[in-house]
Amino acid sequence: MAALAVAGVVGPGLAHYYLNGAGHPLVANVVFAVGYLGAAFLFWNGWLRHIDIGPA
C-alpha cells in the first residue's frame, strides 16, 4: 500500500512537471488528476473499503 501511495503521488506529479515543461499544461493537468484520483480509488478499493466501521 505504501508503494501505491508513493507511486500515485510521485508518478502523476512528475508527469505533470514534465508535460508542463514541454508546453502542454492542459494535458499535464488531466494526467495529474486522473493519476492522483486513480491511485486514491485503488487505495480505497484495495484497503479501506474492507474495514468495517459500522456500529458493533
UniProtKB/TrEMBL annotation:
Q: What is this protein called?
A: Uncharacterized protein
Q: Which InterPro entries match?
A: DUF7996
**Taxonomy-wise, where does this protein's organism fall, top ranks first?**
Archaea, Methanobacteriati, Methanobacteriota, Stenosarchaea group, Halobacteria
Keywords, sorted A to Z: Membrane, Transmembrane, Transmembrane helix
Q: Which domain of life is it from?
A: Archaea
- Give TM segment ranges: 25-44
**Record organism:** Halarchaeum acidiphilum MH1-52-1
